[in-house]
Amino acid sequence: MSTDEPVCPDWVFSDNSNVSIAKDRGWFISYTPFMSRLSNDLAVVGIGTVEIPVRRRSSRSGKKHSDILDQYSVSYTSGLQDQHGRTVAYFDDKKRLFCLKLSGPPVGPSTARSLFLKDADPDGHYHINAEWHPSEHARWEATKQLEPYTSAEPPYTSADKAWIKEHFTDEYHLLQQYGLKVYKDEDHEEGRAIVRTFIASDAQDAANGKV
């Protein structure tokens, strides 16, 4: 994980969900631009792996990947437990919902203010539901079989620019749509990767007879 800006600290355990959501790009240690939607019509702009530094003891920290958290049992009074009943992560009792208690710097990242602090909203009620349709998951699995892009994205081609003009008017609006900064070279590179992922996905859909 590498980020220069504070990231959202709220990793919520939800038994009403079949996928985890990261609000900030800075959480990812690997990332592939991919356009999709969840059942609540929330837009998905990319998929990858995150590493979450969590509190294991009052004075210790440990790192657990989000894609293996479902291998642990959950105790609503303590946190996540492994197959031997040992607690490997705790929930933060200062927050509503079951939010993982994260390790702070220097082990963990700098984080923004939580959205679920009890003190900030004493009467607040929240419901988390993130459902990703199996057909979209299958489309993602198919997309992974395509030739991956290199880490250094070449400049836009004429075809790329035509696609951007049709869907976003210009690169500025493309970057703005996905929360990317026009003054960061790496964000421009990510924008190029997003465009080429969409174009490849469109080509695959056309080959499969989808419109």
Distance between the termini: 37 Å
- Strands ordered across the widest β-sheet: 2-3-4
Shape: globular
Strand elements, count? 8
Quaternary organisation of the protein chains: single chain
Helical coverage, percent range: 10-25%
Task: Characterize the structure shown.
The protein is globular and about 55 Å long. With 211 residues, it is an alpha+beta fold. The chain has 2 domains: 88 residues, no CATH class; 62 residues, no CATH class. The chain is built from 4 helices and 8 strands, in the order ββββββββαααα. The strands form 3 sheets. The chain has a 3-stranded antiparallel β-sheet. Strand 6 and strand 7 form a beta hairpin.
Which terms summarize this structure?
3-stranded antiparallel sheet; alpha+beta; 211 residues; 2 domains; 4 helices
Summarize the structure.
With 211 residues, the protein is an alpha+beta fold.
Q: How do the helices and strands line up, and which of them pair or pack?
A:
Elements: E1 12-13, E2 28-37, E3 43-57, E4 60-65, E5 73-74, E6 79-81, E7 87-90, E8 98-99, H1 134-144, H2 158-168, H3 171-177, H4 185-207
